[in-house]
Amino acid sequence: MRRGDEVIYFATEEFATRIGETGAVYRPYQNGFLPELGAVSRRMDELAWIFMRTTGEILDQELDAYKALRPDYVMTDSVAPWGHWVSQLLNVPVVTSVTTFAFNRRVLRYAVKQGVRPRGGSAFIMSKLRHVAKALSLQRRLRRRYGVPGAGIMGAISNRSGLSLVYTSREFQPCAETFGDAYAFVGPLLESRADGSDFPWDRIVHPRIVYVSLGTLFNADASFYRRCMDGLATLDAQVVLSVGRRVALDSLGAAPANMMLRAHVPQLEVLERASAFITHGGMNSVSESLFYGVPTVVIPQMSEQEIVAGRTQELGAGIVLSKPDVTADTLRSSVDRVLADGEFRQRARAIGDSFRAAGGVERAADLVMKTGRRQGARP
Question: Which domain holds residue 251?
């Protein structure tokens, strides 16, 4: 927008205020499923079908509105296939936003080599295959209806374009050498998501802070928080534990003297001061930690997070604990190790340096404008 473009942003209602604050024009989706995307983490076997079904519904409901806007180019998430279909139907350039690692068959083999497996066993795999078949069948019907080329199985769950913005560095991306110039690794685009004005910074009195958070989708496990409290109660550090709003703080009992329990924590501000981070391994959380040179103890909750966790450990910036192995003792020993061995922090800082060197939001905007204008999006 600072460069003169008008931005019209289709999203769900929860983002309306933040979009409006930037000066962009917010437009609501008519699709009823999108506000429930938080439930997708429990339906990973259905992912291909969910996204392709949503694509069909959005084209039915929204395509006339998109045509009326006459956009010069489209930006869309890599797992929002409808954005790519719209760009083809409107014959305008498309820029793909990749909020995880970039993905191709080499990365898939990398993940399998790391030991990443679908959770749920054979029943999960069979269900996934059924839903992929349904997605491909719908994709073929949509291709015939709208007269656009298909993208096969990968196009049902992920998409690529002439420019894909990937919010990490080539140094952190697995198999980075297999991605050509169409993939721009611009580093994480950090933005504070919480007002830290009510956070009790005056209670942070120890030089070492250990921060604990399982993010927003996987933060309902009260037993995990109790194991943290038991294992870290005598740690020579101050522990900040972000519980979220699905577990009542008073249900966890009295916090140890060295521990602060909060429903809401200004994550970036805490990470700036932290010495270690216990995390679920979400791409955003790990990227934010490494940006500030903070080593991690990663406890992945789903397959995507296992890839992020494995890459972090592979580069020496953290330790991975599988969920079944998480006890008070293993948490304590892992944190002790990360705090005691300065090599972890050194490796984390090196990755953080690569993030800052990747160019950030300014480079991303440069590339978007260049791509749109080169393809005739603007005079």
Answer: 196-357
| Residue 366 C-beta-side C-alpha neighbours within 13 Å | 8
Q: Give the separation between CA 231 and CA 225, rounded to whole angstroms.
A: 10
Contact by Cβ (8 Å): 349, 284: no
Of the candidates 214, 365, 182, which has an alpha carbon nearest to the alpha carbon of residue 299?
Answer: 214
Sign of CA dihedral 269, 264, 318, 38: negative
Q: Rounded distance, CA 155 to CA 55, Å?
A: 11
Whether residue 279 contacts residue 299, with contact meaning beta carbons closer than 8 Å, is answered with yes
User: Tokens 């374009």 label which residue?
Assistant: 161
243 and 263 Cβ atoms separated by less than 8 Å:
yes
Q: For tokens 């749109």, name the residue.
A: 372
Residue 177 CB neighbours (<10 A) = 8
Together in a domain, 103 and 212:
no
- Do 84 and 161 touch, CB atoms closer than 8 A? yes
Indicate the pairing of strand 163-166 with strand 318-320. Answer: unpaired
Residues 182 and 318 in one domain: no
- Would you mind telling me the total number of residues written for the chain in this entry? 379
pLDDT in tens, 158-215: 566 789 999 999 999 999 999 999 999 999 998 766 555 689 999 999 999 999 999 8
Instruction: Tell me the backbone φ, ψ of residue 31, rounded to 5 degrees.
Output: -65, 130
Residues 143 and 237 in one domain: no
> What average pLDDT does this structure show over 75-103?
92
Structure tokens at 251: 């249900």
Distance separating alpha carbons of residues 338 and 257, to the nearest angstrom: 22
Two structure tokens written together for 297 = 């103890």
Radius of gyration of the chain, Cα coordinates, nearest whole angstrom:
22
Answer yes or no: pTM beyond 0.85.
yes
